[in-house]
Design a protein that fits this description.
This protein has 161 residues and is α+β, with helices and mostly antiparallel strands. The protein has a domain at 38-146: 10 Kd Chaperonin, Protein Cpn10, Chain O (Roll). Strands 4-5-1-2-3-6 form a six-stranded antiparallel sheet, with no helix packed on it. It has four helices and six strands, in the order H-H-H-E-H-E-E-E-E-E. The chain has helices spanning 3-6, 12-21, 33-36, 70-79, and strands at 50-55, 82-88, 113-115, 122-127, 134-141, 147-148. The protein is 17% helix and 20% strand.
Amino acid sequence: MTAESMLEIPSTEDVASILSTGKQAEQEPEDTLDWYFPELEPGRRPFGARVLVQLRRTKKKTKGGILIVEETQQTDKWNDQVARVVALGPLAFCNRETKEPWPEGAWAKVGDYVSVPRWGGDRWEKEIPGEEEKATFCIFNDHELISLITEDPRNVKAYIL
């Protein structure tokens, strides 16, 4: 079987129809922020100067529909550093002695996307209703957050060194 016989190339009429209707292809469920960060009750709240985050889920297939092997999914899962802030402890981003906010202000707020350390923190998983996959939550000290993600968190890539 040749590569050409495995591809389905649309006809010029199909392409013209798509262009004339102005419709874009429907977004795959795995491409939405809600899929990457499902709304779940983590079951814990941070004390003191700690920050609770939900780590980004890993994809099961490529944009082209190719299934990603389990070993690669697990490698991506444990090396991912993208997270959504879920909760802040009462002393997060505050002076520990005076309880006054840091002069530069809070580095992140609930709902922000941040980079977190690859290792460390207190990690646990929660079941996602209706799915066999689990969501991963983690608690870090406030000063351990690496950066605020200002672009679409779906586009941030993790590299293994």
